[in-house]
Specification:
This protein has 230 residues and is an all-alpha fold. The protein has one domain. α2 packs antiparallel against α3, α2 runs antiparallel to α7 and α4 packs antiparallel against α5. It starts with a helix and ends with a helix.
Length: 230
């Protein structure tokens, strides 16, 4: 217990780095796998196997995304940036994110069912107020108010929070595309469908463009956390 207390910040930083690595690496894996998901020259079963691989890679990225925020908030508490989390606040915060993570894994494990799609949609709706809250809190921090305490030399923290919120916005779109994979492949399983094939290719084409912006954003979040430039 003394070891954990003395090294709490270092341990949190280590897990934070691991979560970031799985986030970035996982998104690259899904990006590459998507080429075979939309390849009409492959059989439908082969394309579905690639889609299954993409989902299995993506769950690690999704887990990293969810963990990054509570880890960052916990470290922010230790830095003195988030006094709101002192005392029992830190435990309520972790409970909230444990529920979010449970929803993420339930959606993954039940992804081929109506329950999985329903949980996925609920989890996506959870992100909207969260994203708005992060943007508002970051803005208030730059104004010198709100629950985040940030001043000269520590403005990197709310900046990182705002970039994370922006990344969640992109992630919502990418999750929508992947959720539609399941629905569209249900239709394709009934026989060739040119309209569904075209929609699949169009949506993944848009998602690939979003993915490039996603990686730049993730890299920027990493930069702010590592360099703390302002």
């Amino acid at each position: 217990m003394e070891f954990l207390t003395a090294n709490e910040l270092s341990i949190l930083r280590w897990v934070h780095i691991l979560a970031m690595v799985y986030w970035l690496g996982g998104e690259w894996g899904v990006f590459q796998t998507s080429y075979n998901v939309t390849n009409r020259n492959l059989s439908l079963d082969e394309r579905k196997r690639h889609m299954e691989t993409a989902y299995r890679i993506d769950i690690l990225a999704r887990t990293g995304i969810v963990l990054l925020l509570p880890l960052g908030l916990h470290m922010g508490k230790l830095y003195g940036f988030v006094p709101l989390l002192e005392g029992a606040g830190i435990w309520w915060m972790w409970l909230f994110f444990a529920i979010w993570l449970a929803m993420t894994w339930t959606a993954f494990l039940k992804r081929e069912t109506d329950l999985g799609i329903t949980v996925t949609m609920l989890e996506e709706k959870l992100r909207y107020p969260l994203i708005l809250s992060l943007f508002v809190v970051a803005f208030l921090a730059f104004q010198g108010s709100g629950p985040i305490v940030a001043g000269e030399g520590s403005r990197w923290y709310p900046s990182k929070m705002a970039l994370y919120a922006f990344a969640l916005c992109i992630g919502l779109f990418l999750r929508l595309v992947m959720r539609r994979w399941t629905a569209r492949f249900r239709v394709l399983a009934q026989g060739p469908n040119a309209a569904e094939e075209a929609a699949l290719e169009r949506e993944i084409g848009h998602a690939r463009i979003a993915a490039y912006i996603y990686w730049i954003t993730i890299a920027s979040v990493c930069f702010l956390g590592a360099v703390k430039p302002f």
